[in-house]
Amino acid sequence: MSYVAYETQCGGCKYYDFQGDHSKGYCSWYRSYYYPGDSCSHQEARESSTSTCYLTTIICELLGYPDDCYALATLRNFRDQVMQKEEKYRLLLLEYDVVGPQLASMIRKSSQESGNDFQDCLQQFYQQFIVSTVSLVEQHQVEEAVSQYKKMIQVLKEYYGIAEITEKELSNYQNYDFHQGGHGKIKCKMVKDS
């Protein structure tokens, strides 16, 4: 991703999902799409160029697809237009935001340590889970797409030994705004234990 030219504009903001120099990207602050050259009063610099979204890590960083590829665009639209609009997906979006950064880091590390063998596994994973989820979204099979996504994240959690999120852990996120969820980072302040 090359958002350096826009570091004082939307393209360099942590709330902005950069899609390319001449494409609109998603702003999670305003929950709308803007060109990277736009500017506003809510900009905050990115912490690093490494994605905290495990899907972006797999699809773009490790498999080499562009950030605006069809699979990611379809899944992002599904997140924005379906999942962020219904309370019943709140916990699934929260799980993505809590577990996603851990998975992105672990997947990246596995790729560095295993090389080509891991690339083959990622390609199989991409076909089995990501392509099939996109296909279900295209067919407007919402619950089937969500079910396939759940299988995908479960496989990754089991592979990397990530435990299920407990009710106690979930209670730390009472202020979680699921309408902005599913980006691989929490969009609220944690509530401290008393």
Structure characterization notes:
This protein has about 190 residues and is mainly alpha-helical. It folds into two domains: about 1-50, no CATH class; about 55-180, no CATH class. Helices cover about 50% and strands about 5% of the residues. It has six helices and three strands, in the order E-E-E-H-H-H-H-H-H. It has helices at about 55-60, 70-80, 90-115, 115-140, 140-160, 165-170, and strands at about 15, 25, 30-35. The protein has a three-stranded antiparallel beta sheet with strand order 1-2-3, with no helix packed on it. Strand 2 (about 25) and strand 3 form a beta hairpin. The longest helix has 25 residues, at about 90-115.
Q: What's the SSE blueprint?
A:
Blueprint: E1 16-17, E2 25-27, E3 32-34, H1 54-62, H2 70-81, H3 90-114, H4 116-138, H5 142-160, H6 167-171
Antiparallel strand pairs: 1-2, 2-3
Helix pairs in contact: 1-3, 2-4, 3-5, 4-5
- Overall pLDDT score: 79
Topology as H/E string?
A: EEEHHHHHH
The rounded distance between the terminal residues' Cα atoms is 42 Å
Radius of gyration: 17 Å
What count of helical segments does DSSP give?
A: 6
Biggest sheet record: 3 strands, antiparallel
> What strand order characterises the main sheet?
1-2-3
Roughly what fraction of the amino acids lie in strands?
under 5%
* Structural class by secondary-structure content: mainly alpha
Regarding quaternary structure, what we see is: single chain
By DSSP, the count of extended strands is 3
Helical coverage, percent range = 40-55%
Approximate shape: globular
**What is the count of structural domains?**
2
Low-confidence stretches: 1-8
